[in-house]
TrEMBL record:
Its EC number is 2.7.13.3. It comes from the Bacteria. GO terms for molecular function: phosphorelay sensor kinase activity. Keywords: Coiled coil, Kinase, Membrane, Phosphoprotein, Transferase, Transmembrane, Transmembrane helix, Two-component regulatory system. The chain crosses the membrane at residues 6-30, 158-181. It holds the Pfam family HATPase_c. Residues 248-458 form the Histidine kinase domain. This is histidine kinase.
Amino acid sequence: MFNSLSGRLIILTTIFVMIAEVLIFVPSIARFREDYLNNKLERAQIASLALLADDMLDGELEKELLENAGVFNVVLRRDQVRQLVLSSDMPQAIAATYDMRDNSAVVLIRDALARFVSPQNEVIRVIGAPVRDAGLLIEITMETDPLRMTMIDYGIRILILSAVISVITASLLFVAMRALLLKPIKRVVGDMQNYAAAPEDARRIIVPSASVTELREAEEALQKLETDLTQALRQKERLAQLGSAVSKISHDLRNILTSAQLFTDRIEMSEDPTVKRMAPKLVGSITRAVHLCESTLAFGKAEEPSPTLTRLALRDLVDEVIDGEVLAIGDHDVEIVCKVPAMMMVRADPEQLYRVIANLMRNARQAITATSQPGQINIEGREDAGAWYLDVADTGPGLPPKAQEFLFAPFQGGARKGGSGLGLAISAELVKGHGGILDLAWTGPDGTCFTITLPKGDGTLPDRQLDT
């Protein structure tokens, strides 16, 4: 019960009501003491008036008047004359004097609490104004023990009343909260559990029905979340089925195209001018088709293997990629400039990092050659205390808006005409496996620059870099 919201609600309500009652009790007990002392003064005044009306009263009657008033002595001041009207023997000396004629609330509360917690029986003098202007003042002496016992009795009754009020208030609040809030919350929890059992089933999506504004807003937000999740799961299932089919088709198509590639190699040996002119284009088309099939198969795997991190010289790896690109450049006027420090060491998987750099350089080369204009590819390495950076920039025409929008999304259209977009998607995944990021640094009419960021230290990047 104590771990449930309803149980804690009852407990907290009871506690808060009790705290409120305590705050009420303190001034209440002070008011009770003030009324008690004023009542004593009034009764003593009545007893003294009885004696003044008949000054022939014997000692026994005078003693009875004092006992009924609950005081030892009564002093009246009338016409500037102080007169001891009733008197008896006091058991001890007067310990304190209290003037009830002009006391502030703070003084009344202080004196009441002091008397409430003090168990010692004392004799005190109380001064007050007579009722109905029957003199200037009236003084009495009395014991404090009856006052304290009466205050304790009053306090116990207040405590019992507070407990009853707390229990009733907590019960009423619990019933109200259970009907207005707890039951709707339990219903929402039940809907969430029902949806979690089969999130693909759209019939299990929650239907908002709460009358409480805040709870209905939560239900509407949950409904949108569940709707989006159901759609995403359905799309994921369709993509998984499509990916499986595409992988099978790409596997068989790659074998067919490989055979066709062998035939085109023989065709290139022909002396026919027309065949010699068309053969390179045919070879290029088939090569691109084979590459597309291989990329599709690579991306269709469940996941890339985890990188085997080793310390390696980044300049040597970049030079190896450049050697392959130089052969691919052929007669095109494309210059490759490497500004990677010779002594720069990074922690990475050599094979996977080679694939990433090769893909970026191939994209840069193809962007330049597509313009039929001279161009340059710049590779620059740098580092700071937290990470290593490798920039691959080109002087091509820049990325079109659609390519920027779906830059790292597979099958969303590549950065160049006819591209599948798999290269950058695979590269981003490989860099992410290293704990780093592949980011588009800038693009425009003057070219494009991608930045590979690999973390140092514990293998994590600052939040500001991960958010880019």
